[in-house]
Design goal:
The chain is mostly beta strands. The protein has one helix at about 20-25, and strands at about 10-15, 30-35, 45-50, 55-60. The model has no long low-confidence stretch (mean pLDDT about 90).
Length: about 60
């Protein structure tokens, strides 16, 4: 049986700090996590710790 493999609902996404990108400082803060496509169809946005800025910042999902 050579059937098509179904895509799972859980996908791996990369979260990148928005404040580092706008500040122009070198380096980036990125996190890798998973999300459920059915529960969160939009882009994810979480507050995560940025070790370069040494504080919590908003991290958005990138493609």
């Amino acid at each position: 049986m050579a059937g098509k493999k179904a895509k799972g609902n859980r996908v791996q996404v990369i979260l990148e700090c928005t404040e580092m990108k706008n500040s122009g400082l070198p380096g980036t803060s990125r996190y890798v996590t998973t999300k459920n496509r059915k529960n969160t169809p939009d882009r994810m946005e979480l507050k995560k710790y940025n070790p370069i800025l040494k504080r919590m910042t908003i991290h958005k999902e990138i493609k």
